[in-house]
Write a structure and sequence with these properties.
- This protein is α+β, with helices and mostly antiparallel strands and 102 residues long.
- The protein is built from 3 helices and 4 strands; from the N terminus they run E-E-E-H-E-H-H.
- A 4-stranded mixed sheet has the order 1-2-4-3, with helices on one face.
- One of its GO terms (cellular component) is cytoplasm.
- This is Citrate lyase acyl carrier protein.
Length: 102
C-alpha cells in the first residue's frame, strides 16, 4: 500500500497510542517513538508497528508513535487505521486483517 498523505489515528490518553504516518523520501520505514515504557517495551512496540506495515505492504513511511501504555492489539489497530487513511483507502478487508497474528 502506498502512503499518499499524512494521517493520524489515536489519542494520548492512558492505554492508547497516537500514530502519525507520512511519506518518506527514502525507501525505508523510520519510526520515532515517545513512550513512558520505552525501556521495557520500546523494541516490542516498534516491532508491532513494523510487522503491521509489512503485512499491509508498506515499504516506505515515516512513523511517529506517542505511546501511553497501549497493548499490542491497540498498536496494531491504530497502525492499520492510520495506513488506510494515509493511503486514501476507505474500505477495510477486516476478514483478511483478522487472520493476522497479534
Amino acid at each position: 500500500m502506498e502512503i499518499k498523505q499524512k494521517a493520524v489515528t489515536g489519542t494520548v490518553e492512558s492505554s492508547d497510542i497516537m500514530i502519525t504516518i507520512d511519506r518518506n523520501s527514502q525507501p525505508e520505514i523510520s519510526i520515532s517513538l515517545d513512550s513512558s515504557v520505552e525501556k521495557q517495551f520500546g523494541q516490542q512496540i516498534r516491532q508491532v508497528i513494523k510487522d503491521t506495515l509489512k503485512e499491509l505492504g508498506v515499504s516506505s513511511a515515516k512513523v511517529i508513535a506517542v505511546d501511553k501504555g497501549a497493548l499490542d492489539c491497540t498498536i496494531k489497530a491504530r497502525t492499520i487505521t492510520t495506513v488506510y487513511r494515509a493511503a486514501g483507502e476507505s474500505a477495510y478487508n477486516w476478514k483478511e486483517i483478522d487472520s493476522w497474528d497479534v
